[in-house]
Amino acid sequence: MAEAKKLDALVVGAGFSGMYMLIKLREIGLSAQVLEAGSGVGGTWYWNRYPGARCDISSVEYSYSFDPELEQEWTWKERYSAQPDILAYLEHVADRYGLMDGITFNIRVIAARWDKDTGRWTVETDTGETFDSQYLILATGALSEPKLPDLPGLENFSGPILNTARWDDSVELTGKRVCHFGIGSSGIQTVAEIGKSVGELTVFSRTPSFAVPCSNPPLTAEESAAAKANYPAMRDLQRHSALSFATLPKEGSAKECEPAEREKRLEAAWTQSTFSLLLEFDDILFDDESNALVTEFAQCKLAQTITDPEKARKLIPQDVQLGGRRLCAEIGFYDAINRDNVTVVDVREEPVVNVTKDTVVTDKGSYPADVIIFATGFDACVGAIKAIDITGKEGRSIRVEWANGPRAYLGLAVEGFPNLFTITGPGSPSVLSNVVVSIEQHVEWISNCLADMRARGAAVIEAEAQAEQAWMEHVDEVAQQTIFPKANSWYMGNTRDGKRVFMPYVGGVGAYRAKCDEVAAAGYEGFVLGDAA
Ligand code: FAD
Ligand code: NAP
Asked: Counting C-beta atoms within 10 Å of the first and last residue's C-beta, which end of the chain has fewer, N or C?
């Protein structure tokens, strides 16, 4: 067996997180390498190539801020860029900062083992190559491990089966009979696009999401110039806001607003941007009564949009508060749903009982299919980490320990797993923020920490159990003050004993940043720093 390659830092994943991490590790003079399962950079934007895939936070905001020159030289074509444009941007970043020679592609990390005697990680991969690294940094993505439903008889289906997160564009959909499962953000975008050209489309829904109309005009030269001039101010707002958007929630309560005025404001907010409805009053995510008023407004808007009452009954969320599940943006989704060749099936009232070679069979009907598409989501926040067999101190396994709900100090480090860092880990704002803003903050915190450790002569860092426990209690406490934990959503993790835990931190991106900075300034409070062995 070849000798393990020795590194200061091994990074897993080459999306927004892993690429920036590599830049920062090089800056502080560490030998570093990134391992990536895909054959190119981009992460989310490499894998999710389904028709209609695009961001739903404006690209000017959903982009790196670490280099003003990069901001000035890159011009976004649209407000919400399509996947190929975001991927082109990330490929440009990889070239511009010379990252490609630091990334190995087509290699999957399968196991990592902490050696207390050497104070290093031994990392195994599916190619047989092994690595021996002082630090292990998981940039594996909070939404990168797809979940596929286990439909009875699926193995008998003779046509192509597509998954939005692993799209195969050689499969022809024009004129075909398509059965599509799942209408979260990915499914809504896919259906909007394929609905234009497929022959017959059956959309299987389980828990419908609210989707707000988004217009996506090309950015004019004037708009781009204005955005470029405004970058410093906008980034400052993002970094210190609650959700890392440059648009802050408007002060005031929905329930205390005079009804005609509230209606007028919500009407204006409805088409403004993906999250403008939620930001129109600052108590929508905290106060049930205020939320109910805005939820009802959205339900009425959708009832006016979906022309067939049966389809509307199945697709308008009734048992969930607006914002409790990730709000979706739609550009043509309901237009597709309104077509005569589109059927909607609610699997809660009509479960799938079998799949034959060319039909999806429910307990009430049969739906012919040439192609099946799954847009059924991800094992969010923890899936990609648990997919690696990680063994920490005293043989402790992260898979076993997280079976009762994930835990991490600040979403950055896990007690029992020294010198391991997670970017956008559970307990960080991550998926409840503009994720790139959170990624940059994490990467900068980790690289500053590693540089500080070198300066202090420390070789090992580990989260303390008590600090981690207190942080997770705080994560839960702030979540309980909001509407989020009440929804059945992928923000919730399952525990072995049937409980559900809320995974992201909702105390605010700005507050979280301040806490991380305080921890570092206090000499890494809540961490133990030491020598190897
Ligand atoms: P990822 O981009 O997921 O990259 C992780 C990488 O790690 C992947 O390439 C994966 O192959 C690799 N990897 C994982 N495990 C291993 C392993 N064991 N070995 C080797 N490689 C491994 N966020 C927003 O804020 N705004 C948006 O508009 C938005 N749109 C999105 C649209 C889609 C379709 C999806 C799925 C997510 C979206 N997100 C959005 C969230 C998005 O995931 C983040 O914004 C961001 O791209 C995450 O970057 P990352 O580098 O942390 O993770
Ligand atoms: P998702 O939001 O989890 O949606 C998956 C949907 O599939 C859910 O409604 C789920 O219902 C449903 N489903 C699962 N199994 C099913 C089955 N057997 N039959 C019918 N329906 C089934 O996943 P996603 O759409 O991939 O989005 C995940 C996240 O990625 C988003 O919330 C967002 O953060 C990000 N994203 C963003 C964009 C964007 O516009 N920028 C685009 C795509 C993704 P249950 O809830 O009942 O399980």
From this structure: N
Assigned CATH class of 5-53+103-145+392-530: alpha beta
**Helix ranges, 195-315 (H):** 221-240, 259-270, 276-279, 288-305, 309-315
| Residue in the structure block whose two tokens are 């063994």 | 391
What separation in Å is there between the alpha carbon of 44 and the centre of ligand 1? 4
Euclidean distance between CA atoms 18 and 24, whole angstroms:
10
Per-residue pLDDT at 1: 66
CA distance 517 to 510: 11
Is 103 a pocket residue for ligand 1 (Cβ < 6 Å)? no
Of 81, 106, 144, the one to substitute when testing ligand 1's pocket (max ligand atoms within 8 A of C-beta) is 144
Distance of alpha carbon 107 from alpha carbon 290, whole angstroms = 49
Q: How far is the CA of 15 from the centre of ligand 1 (A)?
A: 6
Cβ-contact 155, 141 below 8 angstroms: no
- The ligand with the least distance to the CA atom of 33 is 1
**CB 326 near ligand 2, within 6 Å:** yes
Q: How far is the CA of 333 from the centre of ligand 2 (A)?
A: 14
Torsion of CA 318, 324, 325, 328, to 10 degrees: 90
Distance 353 CA to ligand 2 centre (A): 21
In angstroms, rounded to a whole number, what is the distance separating the alpha carbons of residues 515 and 58?
27
DSSP E strands in 153-242: the ranges are 161-163, 177-181, 200-205, 211-213
Q: Report the pLDDT value the prediction gives residue 533, as an integer from 0 to 100.
A: 52
Residues 6+ apart with CB under 8 A from 250: 279, 280, 281, 282
Ligand 2 centroid to Cα of residue 183, in Å, is 6
Q: Report CA Rg, the chain.
A: 23
pLDDT at 424: 96
Q: Which ligand is closest to the CA of 430, given by its number?
A: 1
186 lines ligand 2 (CB under 6 A): yes
Measured from the CB, is residue 293 less than 6 Å from ligand 1? no
Ligand 1 neighbour 13 (Cβ under 6 A)? yes
Q: How far apart are CA 42 and CA 39, in angstroms?
A: 10
Q: Whose CA is closest to atom 53 on ligand 1?
A: 141
Q: Which residue spans of the chain are classified as CATH 3.50.50.60?
A: 5-53+103-145+392-530
Q: Is 51 in the pocket of ligand 2 (CB under 6 A)?
A: no
CB atoms within 10 A of CB 40: 18
d(CA 246, CA 65): 13
